[in-house]
Design brief:
Layout lengths: L3 E6 L4 E6 L2 E7 L2 E2 L8 E10 L8 E5 L5 E3 L10 E3 L3 E2 L2 H10 L5 E4 L1
Parallel strand pairs: 1-10, 4-8, 7-9
Antiparallel strand pairs: 1-2, 2-3, 5-6, 5-10, 6-7
Protein name: L,D-TPase catalytic domain-containing protein
InterPro entries: LD-transpeptidase, LD_TPept_cat_dom, Transpep_catalytic_dom
GO molecular function: glycosyltransferase activity; peptidoglycan L,D-transpeptidase activity
Length: about 110
């Protein structure tokens, strides 16, 4: 079975999920504001939490860099903006779908 991986394009406000070389999903996202940018680099999904509460919406997927993650939101109008403290923010219905499609350990590349 081909390996799944996530590629995040902060400048395009886009998260892509690949299986092998084929893009199987893509979602609009919000990213870090200029003072707290989303950190470029190669990471992995380290934790997965359902219903973390508050600003994290319905799902949290913590990255291997502490204090950063891919999560839902309680402010859907922020998607498409550079407004977060560095995390990748998604619509709750999108993060719930992605949560089911990825495992702990999957590669996350932030360009």
């Amino acid at each position: 079975m081909p390996q799944r991986r996530i590629v995040i394009h902060p400048s395009r406000r886009l998260l892509e999920l690949y299986e092998g070389n084929q893009r199987i999903r893509h979602y609009p996202i919000a990213v870090g504001k200029s003072l707290t940018p989303t950190p470029p680099g190669s990471y992995s999904i380290a934790t997965k939490t359902m219903y973390p509460g508050g600003v994290f919406g319905s799902r949290w997927m913590g990255l291997s860099i502490p204090h950063y993650g891919i999560h839902g939101t309680n402010n859907p109008s922020s998607i498409g903006q550079a407004v977060s403290k560095g995390c990748i923010r998604m619509h709750n219905h999108h993060v719930e779908e992605l949560f089911l499609l990825v495992e702990i350990g999957i590669s996350v590349t932030i360009l």
